[in-house]
């Protein structure tokens, strides 16, 4: 097992490098880079004010920290640049680091990222690390609590459906699951706001933010209550849209194990149904479900809550990444991509190791020999 872990750890840098390189190359061909974004903002202003704005941007931004973006070298290559002083375009290129060739920019970016130096945002004049840390509480809160609740609901429900397969409970619960699966999470979130957040009927829950404005003045118990009061509706929206798949996966996994020969043998030996289910079936059936928990958590943390964050005015990592793409804020884009990819690769390794933890009979070293 140690050899397997070492091999996987050695693969992480190469995989991370390949993913970053591929995305960097794609970005070179994407229109509407940061220089064009600034040009679009500057059009319609006089040359003196334009020069003043770009000079201020160069002073605040300095050299581009991530070195990512479109590899343009002349004014004619920028859309909307006609009529602007070429010196302004050169200042913008220096400001965003586009005065260097693409290979050099990629090398500088990866060299800085190895030391976790993610530089500054192009348009927020703040360190990328500080921006990400500001968004982390929202994403961690939504991701961890919704994932835990989904597992707490789905696993017992899936086991019960497998044991009572074909019963009225199985039929009606399947109908409810299909209903929950068919409704998008963001649409359910809007419905919750309309009903419970002062939209049309009740005004029980706050509409925005992770905490109240007087959070610092509350007692410890009051802070905990205020925190979960704000999270209730977003977590419900994420849970409703996420528990259906895991419930059916649990049911089908248990049904597959229940019909195997070793279960028939255990029953023939006189073991109780409870002993058969939780002493023999549970470990084998839960292997895939438990091992998939790290990957599910990664997905919920970074990709599963963008629309929910927008609807409930929660400024998290999902919304940060979306806004960075829309504004072409390359330092934020590539820094978050680097962090999310690295975190995802580590969690995938933990997911593989959890197979061995759940079932010690699984030996990755023996499998490869």
From TrEMBL:
Membrane topology type: Multi-pass membrane protein
One cellular component term from this protein's GO annotations in UniProt: plasma membrane
Location in the cell: Cell inner membrane; Cell membrane
Coiled coil regions, renumbered to chain: none
UniProt-listed Gene3D superfamilies: MetI-like
Listed CDD domains: TM_PBP2 (cd06261)
Ranges annotated as spanning the membrane: 9-30, 138-159, 171-197, 227-250, 285-312, 332-351
GO terms, biological process: microcin transport; transmembrane transport
Superkingdom of origin organism: Bacteria
Family of this protein: Belongs to the binding-protein-dependent transport system permease family.
PANTHER family listed in its UniProt record: INNER MEMBRANE ABC TRANSPORTER (PTHR30465), INNER MEMBRANE ABC TRANSPORTER PERMEASE PROTEIN YEJB (PTHR30465:SF66)
Protein name: Microcin ABC transporter permease
